[in-house]
Amino acid sequence: MKHRRFRIDPEKIQGPEATIDEASEIRHIRKVLRLKVGEPVVLFDGKGKEYQASIVRISPREIRFALTPEHDSSGKESPLRIILGAALLKPAKFEWLLQKATELGVTQIVPFYSSRVVSRREEGRGENRIVRWEKIVAEAAKQCGRAIIPAIFPPRSFEEVLQGDWGMVTKVILWERETTGALAGAVKGASGILVLVGPEGGFSDGEAGRAQAAGFRPVHLGPRVLRAETAGIAAVAILQYLLGDLGK
Questions:
Q1: Is this prediction's pTM over 0.70?
Q2: What is the CA radius of gyration of the chain?
Q3: Which string of DSSP letters, residue by residue, matches 184-211?
Q4: 3-state secondary structure of 49
């Protein structure tokens, strides 16, 4: 039987016990799921640790759990490190991209502005947008069984992404005007990949050129032009199939 999964703040784990005191999660457990004392659940801390647990106390202010020893959940994490650099899209499309990229096993997500981004910088600025994104990826990790929640960075400029220190990764940029270089051929043998996906209008010639100068290889996904959010998910799925754990 598959048990319900809940994210737990590592600071709320004290020896053989753990506590959830977040109001929205308490309400979900008590009012929506209607779980009872004694029911088994799985707790994960978002950093790789996962615990079998059972509910020992339910109150309006907290849910308390008894823990069994943590177990290794690394089998649900891909051996391939994927950093998804994603140009900002309209909110609903971008949030869908965050959710599906998390389910497919990306390690980090780097939103950025480029010249053809439709979403204006003034819209949804500040901590609220980041907090919402973090909740989306956390919920997606919870749903798909991951114990590690992907890191999501605050939005930055395209140039900052090009010049960033991303470690030992193969760098590729999806460009609809590229006709000869397929994604599969550009990433052979890679253990870490940074893939850039443009906005609804794609990358400009100048942006593609600057990316190449910064060490990114332009690639295509096939003969059809995909929507930005589709291209991002297709690229991650292809990478996981070729070098990660999808279909294995």
A1: yes
A2: 20
A3: HHHSTT-SEEEEEE--TT---HHHHHHH
A4: strand
User: 89 and 123 share a domain?
Assistant: yes
Q: Is the pLDDT of residue 124 over 70?
A: no
Note whether 19 and 131 are same-domain residues. no
Residue 142 carries which DSSP code?
H
Residue 156 to residue 175: CA distance in whole angstroms: 20
The verdict on residue 96 lying in a domain is yes
The torsion region of residue 232 among left (phi > 0), alpha (psi -120 to 50) and beta comes to: alpha
Which pLDDT score, from 0 to 100, does residue 47 have?
85
Q: Are 64 and 57 in contact (CB under 8 A)?
A: yes
Of 28, 126, 113, 93, the residue nearest 20 (C-alpha): 28
Residue with tokens 């209607």: 34
Domain containing residue 170: CATH number: 3.40.1280.10
Reported as a single tens digit per residue, the pLDDT across 54-94 is 999 999 999 999 998 766 666 678 999 999 999 999 999 99
Residues 112 and 217 in one domain: yes
Maximum Cα–Cα distance for the chain, whole Å?
A: 61
| 163 and 238 within one domain | yes
Number of domains the chain is built from:
2
Domain that holds residue 56: 4-72
Residue type, 87: A
Element containing residue 67 per DSSP (H, E) = strand 63-67
**Residues β-bridged to residue 20:** 63
Same-domain check for residues 200 and 168: yes
In a domain, 142, yes or no: yes
Angle between helical axes of 91-103 and 127-144 (0-180°, round to 10) = 40
